[in-house]
Each structure stands twice: as structure tokens, then as C-alpha cells.
DNA sequence: CGCTAACATGTTAGCGCTAACATAGTTCTA
DNA sequence: TAGAACTATGTTAGCGCTAACATGTTAGCG
């Protein structure tokens, strides 16, 4: 029996004002308040005004959790990157964030630390939050992760590189970028060229660039020695890289670094060692970070359009969320060789 | 009348498996499945195993939105910073994220772009997500924002600086840091010292450092000229800053920059101009970014313990969330003067 | 003036989960 | 050996909101 009052359970929940209280204050029903907030064009202007006043009056803050449960979707966009230590991802995140936030979406940031199992866990968690879309850096995923995403019917955007994508794809051709820089070095007359990467098994985009690099050197009849550092790209690692090249390949006259952090670290280290760049050793990087453009000699590098990549990716996803047709599921943002004085 | 079948409403919601289906498969009630996931120690081991198998079997992914609504709290931690362009905040975010993620909390990142109104909007949104705690960079908030937070009963952590905090506080004394560097420059024998900042109205911590700087110069009987750049700290802005000092204060022999980006930009620009550092002009920064430690001459700067700050802040919040007593509501993480060759 | 369409608002029934209370079985204590 | 204390699991009632359907009201039309 419903023992009407005595045996009542204590309520939980926050003691924040709810839609109901706003509705009572404004003298309308809860759904009208809901509509005044979410689809204002469907509510008479006078009513809407009354509702907004009531909201102010009672100090109402919408409970987005409840809204998301009822509508089975949140205004979250899951963004998964392999690292927050790398400026490249930060810049992509920043431009994704700007574009999404302007449209009322909130980014949910996940960091895999280059571990596909962690990616799977993050995807699981994010699916649990009823995200509106997923943006992930890279095309490689675990089987388990693919299993989850296979059932999912919301937009999936894979950024950074181009290839066989699950859904949407915005990026650039890393192998071609590697070829491009190798061609430049060869054209400069260099013959003894070393490629220096950091953790290429994890940063597989850098290893794709090495593949392109090697193709060109092979075709030119040159050796393509590789030095792999066991810690991720940083200025300090770049200095170590230079030392290692000098020790292992004293004949080397040019170094193609996997990224600008390494290259700049090496360049600054060369200064400390009293080596002339590019006369004694030429140095090239990849990414086009501000850093490399401020050192003397200016770093030769490849500019990856990170802002553009983030913005385009976000716009593409937003288009899909607006049910507008997406004409190009894959977009190549390209890259630009920036010839500095370091080669 | 309840027309039992014909007039049924169509359901919405995702077609994902729910707790109920797991429960049926495992032959237990939903609450047991819930407990097996959230408080496993309260479920018999054999039962728990059966439940976990059922979860695998049906491919269940917990709906965290529903869970949060029912429990009136999510495992979100709101983190609000003024900028993602500044490496300092990125590093703090990274160490917050590591510490929180290890304990199963997810960061909800907000970027105010140094705008207190945007901070208010972000706080509103985040409260709507039933966050477990709020971490914010800085002690300054709008009235409206304080109004919202006043009612809120969950942990609030203010990081970066020290002062009159709402709840918890981990940071350093920026005014003292400014004094420290000014003392160093004076001790080095410099008399004509210029402070160069960027958007000091927004980056008010930098202006606190200037206040400390001026105090010391005042006490020494020296002028404390200030140059303020109208764009945020970057290498390029630092170069501009140096140019401006050379133009406006040709007698200047030392520049105290508001941060390392500016200082390093100026240092690299000095190299391009053929100026000797520190003989022609001494340069000092603030933050202790890796960058400044790799240039030649090595930058004199103040190391702010950003990793420590993030970790301590997160640990303090976690302690509060675990209902453990928090002994120190305010923690000073201090700073270290790092004397390089640039002064 | 009756009909339809468009608009404005309301009623109802959950979304999927967990807090609170309830109940059974088991171990321990006096 | 009664019953207190503990363990393991279940039942019930929402959390606060919105989709779907329902109803009322006004405008437009021949």
C-alpha cells in the first residue's frame, strides 16, 4: 500500500532549483521551460521572457546530466590524443575546442599515452557519456576498440594522417612529407643523411615519414641509416640525438629529425658544441613549430597545418551533426616545405 | 485507461544493452550488477564473476549519464584555465589529468581566454554536469561566478597563485618571485632595468611580479620603467619587446621579461641582431620552461614547480573527495631562481 | 461558417541508473 | 539458543529532464 506520508523515502539529489520550480514560478509547465531554453523559437516571445525571468529569479542552473539522459545525447565531443606533451596535439586540440565551443559543444579530452588499450578504455568511458561525436588522432585502433565503434552511429573523425578511415578523415600524407624533405636534402647536395626519430613504434606517423625518406634515398642510391631514441621528442632528446649521430656516423653531413623539437634541440646543442649549421652538419625537422623559426639559423622544416586540421575536422563533424550532407569524407590538408638556413 | 499494448509510446534511447539485460543474463537483480561494478567488495566473489561474464557476453557499456543522474554526482573534475596557448597551463593540466585519471576521474577542460564572463558561463555549464570538484587557475572571479560557487558544496581548488581563496589553494607568491628576480638583477650590478610584460591587465599574475620587481627597484632608488606589449607572450612578441626596449630605452642594460617565451624570443632575436647577451643586454624570464634552458646563453629564470602544483592540487582535492581531513587548505609550492648565463 | 493548417502549450511516460530501505541467510555472542 | 551483528542480495522509488503524443487556440480560405 502506498502509505502516503509516514513511510516516505528520503530524497537524494542536489538541492538546486529544478525546471519544475522555474515552471511554477513562471506559471507554465516544465516542458515549456525546457523548450524556452532548448528550442526558443517554438515558444511565444512573451512566455519565453517570463520563463527567463523566472530562471533568474530562482537561480536555476540546468541539470545537463538529466537532459542528456532524457535525450540520449550530450553535447560532448570526445577528443582522444596520444599525448599532451607534444605541442602538435595541443594546437589541434585548441582549434577543435574553439570551433566546437562556439557551437555549444564541450570537449571531453582523453590522453592515451600512445597505448591502444588505454584508447579502448577511453572510448568505452566516452560512449558511456553519450558523446555526440568522437575525434581521434590517428587511424590505428585495437580490435576491441573497433568492435565498440562499429556499433556506434555517431560521427567519428580521425585526424592527423590520411588513410582507410572509419568515417571522416582530415589529415596529411606523412609518407609524402618524408619524401619531400628527403628530396630537399638530396637536392642540397647531401649524401650522408641520417634520420633520427624518437619511439617510432609509438609515433608511427614519424615512422611513415621515415619510410618516405628511405624511399627517396633508396631511389637515389644512398644509404638511409636510422637512429631511434628511446624517449619522446624534446629539446633534450634532440641534443642526445645529435651526440649519437656524431658518435655513430661521424661522416654524416645532414640529419633529418622526426620533428621540430628534436631538430631544434640538436640545433641549439650544435651551437653549444661550436658546430656550424649547415656547414658542418645540416638539420631538418617536421611540424613548423614557432620555436624552429626563431633560432639562428632558421630551421628547415615542413609546416603541418594544425590549426586548419582542427578547424576543418570540427566543421566537418558539425556539418554531420546538423544533418547536412558531407561531400568529402576525406580531406587532405597538405603541408608546406619551409626552407630555412639550417640546410 | 491504460490501453495495454496498442497505444504504447515508442521508446527512445540508445539500443545499447542496459544493466537490466546484464542482470537477466547473470540471473541477478540490477542493483547487484551496479554493485559489482561500483562497489565490488560488497558482492560475493562468485556472483561478481558471473556478472562480469554477463557484461562481456552482452557487450555492456555502462551509461555514465544515467549513473550520474541517479547518484547526483559525476566523476568529472572541472578544470578552468585562461589559455591553452601558454605552455604553463598545459603542464599544470597534464599533471592534474594524470593524477585524477589514475583515480578514475575525468577532466572537463574549459578555456576562458582571460575573460571572467566566459569563466562564469563555464562554471554554470560544469555545475550542470554535477562535477565532483572544480579546479581553477587564479583567484579572480566575477560576482556572478562567486554567487554560483557560494552555494556549491563540493571542493574548489584555486591554483597558480596564493591568496584569499574560496576553499583550497595551491600556488606560489608571484610578487615575491618578482622581487627575487629584481634583487638578482640589482645584485648583478644592473641599474637600467626594464620590465616587459604582455597584456598585464589580463595576465595579472605577471603584473603582480612587476609589482614585486618595482618594490625592489624603488627601495634601491632605481627607476622601474615598464613596457607592455599588446599581444600575449610568444617568441615573436619577445623579439618585438626587445626592439621596443632598444628604441624607447637605449640606455637599458637589463630586461626582466614577464615570462620565458618573451625572454627566449628576445634572446634569440638578440642573436640575430648581433647583440651580446649579457654583455650588451641582460635578459631574464619567468617559468623555467625547457626552451630557455637550451639556448646559449642559458636563460636566467625562475622555475615555477608546475608539475608539483598540479599534482599537489589534485591530491588535495582527492583527499577531500575521499572524506579525509585536509590539514592545509593553502599550500605554497615556492619557486627557484635559476641563474643562467643571460644575466 | 466549417474545415484545415499552423502555432502554442500541456500531459504522460520514461531515459538507465543508484540511494534507501527491506529481507533473507549466516556467524557470533552471552 | 535467542537475538544481535554482519553479509549478500532484492524491491522500490525516484534523479531532472525531454520525446512523443494530445489538446487547445488562432489564422487562413473558399
Automatic annotation (TrEMBL), chains A, B:
GO terms for molecular function: DNA-binding transcription factor activity; transcription cis-regulatory region binding. The keyword Transcription regulation applies. Residues 1-23 are annotated as: Disordered. Keywords: DNA-binding, Transcription, Transcription regulation. Residues 17-71 form the HTH lacI-type domain. It holds the Pfam family LacI. SUPFAM superfamilies: lambda repressor-like DNA-binding domains, Periplasmic binding protein-like I. It comes from the Bacteria. This is HTH-type transcriptional regulator GntR. It comes from Halomonas lysinitropha. The lineage of its organism: Bacteria, Pseudomonadati, Pseudomonadota, Gammaproteobacteria, Oceanospirillales. The gene is gntR_1.
Amino acid at each position: 500500500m502506498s502509505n502516503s506520508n509516514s513511510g516516505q523515502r528520503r530524497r537524494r539529489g542536489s538541492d538546486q532549483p529544478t525546471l519544475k520550480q522555474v515552471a511554477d514560478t513562471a506559471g507554465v509547465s516544465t516542458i515549456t521551460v525546457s523548450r524556452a531554453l532548448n528550442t526558443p523559437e517554438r515558444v511565444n516571445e512573451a512566455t519565453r521572457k517570463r520563463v527567463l525571468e523566472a530562471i533568474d529569479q530562482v537561480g536555476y542552473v540546468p541539470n545537463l546530466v538529466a537532459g542528456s539522459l532524457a535525450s540520449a545525447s550530450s553535447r560532448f565531443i570526445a577528443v582522444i590524443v596520444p599525448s599532451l606533451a607534444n605541442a602538435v596535439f595541443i594546437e589541434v586540440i585548441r582549434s577543435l575546442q574553439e570551433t566546437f565551443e562556439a557551437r555549444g559543444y564541450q570537449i571531453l579530452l582523453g590522453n592515451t599515452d600512445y597505448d591502444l588499450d588505454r584508447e579502448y578504455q577511453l572510448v568505452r568511458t566516452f560512449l558511456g557519456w553519450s558523446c555526440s561525436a568522437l575525434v581521434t588522432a590517428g587511424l590505428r585502433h585495437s580490435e576491441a576498440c573497433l568492435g565498440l565503434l562499429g556499433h556506434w552511429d555517431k560521427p567519428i573523425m580521425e585526424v592527423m594522417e590520411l588513410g582507410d578511415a572509419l568515417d571522416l578523415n582530415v589529415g596529411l600524407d606523412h609518407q609524402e612529407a618524408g619524401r619531400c624533405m628527403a628530396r630537399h636534402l638530396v637536392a642540397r647536395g647531401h649524401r650522408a643523411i641520417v634520420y633520427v626519430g624518437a619511439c617510432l613504434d609509438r609515433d608511427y606517423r614519424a615512422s611513415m615519414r621515415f619510410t618516405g625518406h628511405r624511399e627517396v634515398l633508396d631511389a637515389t642510391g644512398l644509404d638511409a641509416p636510422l637512429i631511434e631514441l628511446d624517449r619522446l621528442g624534446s629539446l633534450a632528446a634532440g641534443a642526445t640525438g645529435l651526440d649519437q649521430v656524431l658518435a655513430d656516423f661521424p661522416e654524416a653531413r645532414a640529419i633529418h629529425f622526426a620533428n621540430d623539437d628534436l631538430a631544434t634541440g640538436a640545433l641549439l646543442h650544435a651551437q653549444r658544441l661550436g658546430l656550424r649549421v649547415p656547414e658542418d652538419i645540416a638539420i631538418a625537422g617536421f611540424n613548423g613549430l614557432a620555436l624552429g623559426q626563431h633560432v639562428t639559423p632558421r630551421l628547415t622544416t615542413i609546416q603541418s597545418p594544425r590549426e586548419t586540421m582542427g578547424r576543418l575536422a570540427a566543421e566537418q563533424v558539425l556539418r554531420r551533426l546538423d544533418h547536412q550532407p558531407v561531400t568529402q569524407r576525406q580531406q587532405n590538408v597538405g603541408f608546406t616545405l619551409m626552407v630555412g638556413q639550417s640546410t
